[in-house]
Design a protein that fits this description.
heterodimer, A: alpha+beta, Nuclear Transport Factor 2, Chain: A, seven-stranded mixed sheet, B: Rieske Iron-sulfur Protein, Naphthalene 1,2-dioxygenase Alpha Subunit, Chain A, domain 1, 2 domains, eight-stranded antiparallel sheet, 23% strand, globular
C-alpha cells in the first residue's frame, strides 16, 4: 500500500470494527445493517472458534440480511414485549488485527468484551470478532461478521441485541 | 416455613379443577419437595444412547439435583450410575462427555471401578482389613439406578422406587418417539449439532404449560410475526419461501388455526398438541426422501408417518418432542424460579441433509438464546414469575373450556380436544398432584 487512497483504505480498515460497533452501541441498527454486503451474514457459532462451518453444527445465530432485518424491524415494534424496558449494549474492543488485506478483500480479528444491559440485569460476553470484508465504492462492507464467544455452549439468558 | 412437608392434603388443595395456586410456581419449599418426591416418581429423559456410541463413553447429566452418569458397556448396553465416588462423594467425571477407557478412576484417592460399576481397586487395601467397608454401601462400587428405560435409544430414568413402570407411564406417548425414529428410512437417529442451552428465571411448570399454549402466539409473538409478514408482503402466495420464513410465518396463525389443530391428553400429564395439523405441516415436500420412506415402510405406513406432525408432544415432565423438524426440548428445573431449557437436534439416517438443516434452523430461530421468538416468551415467563407475587388473587386461571365431566373417573384418560382447550394444562397439574403426593406420608 503506497498511494494516498490506499492509506485511507487502510485506515478505514483498521478502524472498521470500532465504527461498526459504535453503530450498534448507539442503537443505529438500520445504519449498521447497511454495512453488510448483499450476501453478508452474521454468525455466532455454538462451538466458537472451534467451529468449521454452519452446516454440521448448531449456531447461536446465523442470519442473512433478511433475518437481520426481521430482527431490526421487530425492535421498532412497541409490542416487542421483551424490550420493555429496552436493551442497550456496549462493545469494548481491542485494536483490530488485520489478518489479511489484499486489494478488495480483508479479514480482521478483534477481541472484545460485550455488555448488554436491560433494567436491573446486565449480561457480559467475551470473545473475538472476525470480520470478512469486501471493498465497494461506498467503502468496506461485511461479507461475514463472525462472533467467536468464550464458552459459547453454556446456558445463556436472552441475548437480545448484537454482540 | 413448613407449610407443605408432610402435608399431602395441603398440596392437593393447590390444584383445583379449573385453577392452580401460585405457590406451585413460587414456593421454595414445594420445589424442594418436587426434587425429593415428584422427580423421583416420574420418568425423566436423561439422554440419547447415540451420545455414548463406544464402550467407555459417558454422558454426565444432572436430574433433580442428582449428578448422573450414562455409560456405554463393553457388551453394547448402557447403564446409569450416580456420578459419585463410593468413598467420599467426588464426582467421578466433571466433563460433560468423554471416554473413560476400561474403568473409572476417582481423581481424589484413586479408587477405581469397572464400567459396570463394580469396585476394582483401592490404594492401601490392607488398611481396610477388619473394617466394615466391604459390608457397607461404600464397598459396593458405583450405585446404579434401578429404574432405567431405553426406548429406541431414548434413555429415561426414574430415581425413586415408587411410581408406575415406564411403559405404563408413557402408554400411547411412545408413538411420538416412534414417529421421530420412523421418519428415518433406516430406523436410526443420531444426536447431532450440539445443544442450545437457555437459563430462564421462571418456574419449570410455566415453560411446560406454554408448550401447550396455543393462544399466546398471536399476542406474545406479534412483533416477530408482524416483522416477518411485512418483509414477506408482496410475494405471490406460491412463491418458494426461504426456510426461515417457512418456519417463522406460521407463528402468526390465528386463534381458529390453533383451535382446529386439536389436542390429545393422556394419563400422567402427557399430551399431543396438533393432532390434526400444526405449524410444521406445510414444509416443502421432498420427493426423493418420501420415495425412500415408501420403500422402507410401504405406501400406507409411510404416508401415516409423514402426515403426523404435531406441534409438540410432551412426555411429562421433562421432554417435548417435535417429529418434524427432528428436535427435542429437555426441561431441567434448577430452582423454584430458575429453569434450564435445552434444545437438541437429530440427524436422520437415510434422509437428505435438508432435514438436518431444518432441525438446525428451527432450533436456532425458536430456541436459541438469541431467538427473537423466544425473547418474548422468556420475558413473559419471567414477568409472570414476578407478577404472581402481587395482590390477593393467589390463583392462576385454567378455566378455558373446563367441563366438569373431566373429573369423572368414567371419562377416558386418553382423549382428543379442541386445540385451544386448557385441558392440556389442567391435565399436567392433575398429574403433578398425583406424582407429588405418591407415597408421601402425612405427618402425624
Amino acid at each position: 500500500m503506497t498511494g494516498v487512497g490506499d492509506m485511507q483504505a487502510h485506515e478505514a480498515l483498521a478502524g472498521f470494527a470500532a465504527v461498526e460497533a459504535a453503530l450498534l452501541d448507539a442503537g443505529r441498527f438500520d445504519d449498521w445493517l447497511a454495512l453488510f454486503a448483499e450476501d453478508g451474514r452474521y454468525w455466532v457459532p455454538l462451538l466458537g472458534a472451534a467451529q468449521a462451518d454452519a452446516q454440521s453444527h448448531q449456531s447461536i445465530a446465523l442470519e442473512d440480511r433478511l433475518l437481520l432485518q426481521l430482527r431490526i424491524e421487530r425492535l421498532k415494534n412497541p409490542r416487542a414485549h421483551s424490550q420493555h424496558p429496552r436493551s442497550h449494549c456496549q462493545h469494548v474492543l481491542q485494536p483490530s488485527f488485520i489478518e489479511h488485506a489484499d486489494g478488495g478483500e480483508a479479514r480482521l480479528r478483534t477481541p472484545f468484551i460485550y455488555v448488554e444491559a436491560r433494567g436491573e440485569e446486565q449480561l457480559m460476553l467475551a470473545g473475538t470478532c472476525r470480520h470478512s470484508l469486501v471493498h465497494t465504492p461506498a467503502g468496506w462492507r461485511m461479507r461475514e461478521k463472525r462472533i467467536d464467544l468464550l464458552n459459547p455452549g453454556r446456558a445463556w439468558p436472552a441475548i437480545q441485541l448484537f454482540p | 416455613m413448613n407449610a407443605y412437608r408432610g402435608q399431602p392434603d395441603a398440596i392437593r388443595a393447590l390444584v383445583q379443577p379449573d385453577r392452580v395456586h401460585r405457590d406451585l410456581y413460587l414456593s421454595d419449599e414445594l420445589f424442594a419437595l418436587e426434587q425429593q418426591h415428584f422427580f423421583a416418581n416420574t420418568w425423566n429423559y436423561l439422554g440419547h444412547a447415540s451420545q455414548v456410541p463406544n464402550a467407555g463413553d459417558y454422558l454426565a447429566v444432572d436430574i433433580a439435583g442428582r449428578p448422573l452418569l450414562l455409560v456405554r458397556q463393553p457388551d453394547g448396553s448402557v447403564r446409569v450410575f450416580h456420578n459419585r465416588c463410593a468413598h467420599k462423594g467426588t464426582k467421578l467425571v466433571t466433563d460433560e462427555t468423554g471416554n473413560t477407557g476400561k474403568f473409572f478412576r476417582c481423581p481424589y484417592h484413586a479408587w477405581t471401578y469397572k464400567l459396570d460399576g463394580a469396585p476394582l481397586a483401592i490404594p492401601l487395601k490392607s488398611g481396610y482389613d477388619g473394617t466394615q467397608l466391604q459390608e457397607c454401601e461404600s464397598g459396593q462400587g458405583l450405585e446404579a439406578l434401578k429404574h432405567v428405560a431405553v426406548y429406541r435409544e431414548f434413555v429415561f430414568v426414574r430415581l425413586g422406587d415408587v411410581g408406575p413402570g415406564f411403559e405404563d407411564c408413557m402408554g400411547e406417548m411412545l408413538q411420538s418417539i416412534d414417529n421421530m425414529v420412523d421418519r428415518s428410512p433406516e430406523g436410526r437417529l443420531t444426536i447431532a449439532g450440539g445443544v442450545l442451552r437457555n437459563v430462564i428465571h421462571c418456574n419449570w411448570k410455566m415453560y411446560l404449560e406454554n408448550i401447550n399454549d396455543t393462544v399466546h402466539p398471536m399476542s406474545t409473538h406479534e412483533s416477530a410475526t408482524q416483522a416477518a409478514q411485512a418483509l414477506w408482503a408482496g410475494q405471490p402466495a406460491d412463491a418458494p419461501k426461504p426456510m426461515a420464513m417457512e418456519q417463522i410465518l406460521p407463528f402468526g396463525s390465528g386463534y381458529d388455526f390453533f383451535d382446529r389443530m386439536g389436542g390429545r391428553i393422556h394419563a400422567n400429564g402427557h399430551s399431543v398438541l396438533g393432532v390434526n395439523f400444526s405449524i410444521h405441516s406445510n414444509y416443502a415436500q421432498l420427493p426423493e426422501y418420501e420415495q425412500a420412506m415408501r420403500a422402507a415402510h410401504g405406501e400406507e405406513r409411510a404416508t401415516q408417518i409423514l402426515q403426523r406432525s404435531p406441534q409438540n408432544s410432551v412426555l411429562y415432565p421433562s421432554l417435548s418432542v417435535k417429529g418434524s423438524p427432528q428436535a427435542i426440548r429437555v426441561i431441567r428445573p434448577l430452582a423454584a424460579n430458575r429453569t434450564l431449557v435445552e434444545a437438541w437436534g437429530f440427524r436422520v439416517a437415510g434422509a437428505p441433509d435438508l432435514l438436518f438443516e431444518r432441525t438446525l434452523s428451527y432450533n436456532r430461530l425458536v430456541f436459541s438464546p438469541m431467538s427473537v421468538v423466544a425473547h418474548d416468551d422468556v420475558h413473559l415467563f419471567e414477568s409472570m414469575q414476578q407478577g404472581l407475587r402481587a395482590g390477593h388473587n393467589e390463583w392462576v386461571s385454567l378455566h378455558r373450556n373446563f367441563d366438569a365431566a373431566e373429573l369423572d373417573p368414567a371419562t377416558p384418560s386418553s382423549r382428543n380436544t379442541n386445540g385451544t382447550n386448557e385441558l392440556l394444562m389442567r391435565n399436567q397439574f392433575r398429574a403433578w398432584v398425583q406424582f407429588m403426593t405418591l407415597g408421601m406420608e402425612a405427618a402425624a
